[in-house]
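Homework help board

Subject: predicted structure for assignment chain

Our instructor gave us this sequence and asked us to write out the predicted structure in token form, then describe one feature. I got the tokens but I'm not sure how to describe them. Can anyone check?
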Amino acid sequence: MSGNRRKPFMVRITKEYDDEGRQKREVLGYYETRKKALEALTSYNENPLRYFCVTYL
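My token output:
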């Protein structure tokens, strides 16, 4: 991301594709360092359900 930011590294994933083939993306978070951002992406890839857990009451 451009500019002087406190957390300049953004982790974004492709959630799905629409009917025209375009990506629908979702932001997982913003991080202070590239290393932390890559760790978050690795954690998501190991267990994606941890980020998008649905609970039923």
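Reply (TA_rk): Your tokens look well-formed. For the description, you could write something like this. The mean pLDDT is 87. That's the kind of observation they're looking for.
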